[in-house]
Design the sequence.
């Protein structure tokens, strides 16, 4: 008991430090780099407006975000290039006083993979109230983003050149921008789209396949903060979409275990998929139970190639029309690069009179590693 309490304290301290430290450091390069908005309590007492602002990252300034406004488009000093595609990152609900520390990691992984403009939507101010108030704000944030996208269109950016990446509530913000553009936006990726107050919402109010030409989603915490229903053309459910390997499920660490670990896993796996050290492929199946039984090893619905997480066009789907709300299942491990081998082992035994035990040893050729599995075959 005593030790569990201590480990909790330690966890919270760590979380606190890392969210402070990993904010976009202000002092960097003589204070020239832009940072997320401040959410100091004093400031927040007069709740005036949403205070949405934009940070720009490109290959020219990977470590030092620039503030981005409409005026930036006519400024020589801005790194925005209208002939490049644009990724728009939208964070979700914020615990007051924190900054989305993962944004730089995602932005830099995107920039390593493609030469693009990365626009980070900073709505930290509006996202730091009580959850239900924040949910009231999200459409207005989407409306403001759509004004900026309109201006970018006037400068020659095509709607299909935009790819929105929204985490949690940010996925529904992206979905509503998509609604405002009548589905002409190129792509929306939802990273564990928020569940509370959205699961039973109309498709107009939440992310759904009509919001962009292609919508993909990754689900990692669908029994808590994530949404349990499919919301894209394809939906990857990692390890069934609810609980992730390596995320603690003890009662004492439940705050950390659920709020951060399962929910944020979608992001970490996605960042890893961008690094493409190994393929994260989803198998179409109607339920996780069926998948675990080995009933869904077939990529036939996609002409033999199952969808892969990451940036490839339509996740590698070449068949048309695109599926809608297609659930895809895969197993992942507890740490980077998260990829797991899926092996289907089929044992055919004649009728048994007693239960039997079978030991299977899996060996990999190159590293000569072994893994032993014990299987129990019961007689009924
Ligand atoms: C927060 O955003 C508003 C609106 O863009 C801006 O006026 C204000 O200076 C920002 N505050 C900080 C601390 O960046
Ligand atoms: C914008 O991108 C295009 C295509 O990559 C490139 O030819 C051009 O030089 C870039 N413009 C600026 C101002 O960097
Ligand atoms: C992605 O690759 C880069 C460069 O190889 C590496 O520095 C980074 O740690 C990798 N990130 C992840 C999440 O694997």
Sequence:
């Amino acid at each position: 008991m005593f030790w569990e309490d201590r480990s909790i304290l330690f966890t919270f301290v760590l979380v606190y430090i890392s969210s402070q430290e990993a904010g976009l450091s202000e002092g960097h390069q003589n204070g020239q780099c832009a940072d997320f908005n401040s959410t100091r309590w004093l400031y927040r007492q007069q709740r005036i407006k949403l205070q949405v602002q934009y940070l720009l990252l490109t290959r020219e300034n990977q470590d030092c975000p620039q503030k981005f406004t409409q005026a930036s488009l006519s400024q020589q000093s801005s790194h925005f290039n209208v002939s490049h595609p644009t990724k728009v990152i939208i964070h979700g609900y914020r615990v007051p006083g924190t900054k989305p520390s993962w944004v730089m990691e995602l932005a830099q992984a995107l920039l390593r993979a493609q030469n693009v403009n990365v626009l980070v939507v900073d709505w930290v101010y509006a996202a730091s109230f009580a959850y239900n108030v924040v949910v009231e704000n999200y459409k207005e944030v989407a409306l403001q983003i759509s004004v900026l996208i309109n201006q970018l269109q006037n400068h020659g950016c095509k709607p299909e050149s935009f790819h929105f990446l929204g985490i949690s509530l940010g996925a529904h913000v992206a979905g509503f921008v998509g609604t405002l553009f009548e589905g002409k936006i190129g792509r929306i990726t939802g990273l564990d789209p928020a569940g509370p107050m959205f699961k039973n919402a109309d498709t107009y109010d939440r992310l759904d396949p009509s919001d962009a030409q292609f919508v993909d989603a990754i689900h990692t915490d669908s029994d808590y903060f994530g949404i349990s229903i499919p919301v894209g053309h394809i939906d990857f459910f990692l390890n069934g979409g609810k609980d992730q390997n390596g995320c603690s499920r003890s009662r004492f660490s439940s705050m950390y275990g659920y709020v951060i670990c399962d929910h944020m896993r979608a992001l970490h796996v996605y960042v890893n998929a961008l690094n493409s050290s190994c393929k994260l492929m989803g198998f179409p199946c109607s339920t996780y139970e069926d998948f675990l039984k080995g009933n869904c090893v077939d990529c036939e619905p996609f002409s033999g190639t199952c969808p892969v997480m990451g940036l490839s066009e339509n996740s590698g789907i070449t068949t048309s029309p695109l599926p809608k709300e297609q659930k895809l299942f895969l197993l992942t491990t507890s740490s980077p690069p998260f990829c797991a081998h899926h092996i289907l082992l089929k044992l055919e035994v004649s009728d048994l009179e007693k239960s039997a035990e079978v030991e299977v040893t899996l060996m990999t050729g190159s590293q000569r590693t072994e893994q032993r599995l014990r299987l129990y075959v019961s007689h009924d």
Summary: Residues 81, 83-84 surround 2-acetamido-2-deoxy-beta-D-glucopyranose (ligand 2) (CB under 6 Å). The chain has two domains: 2-330, 346-380. Confidence is low (pLDDT under 50) at residues 1-30.
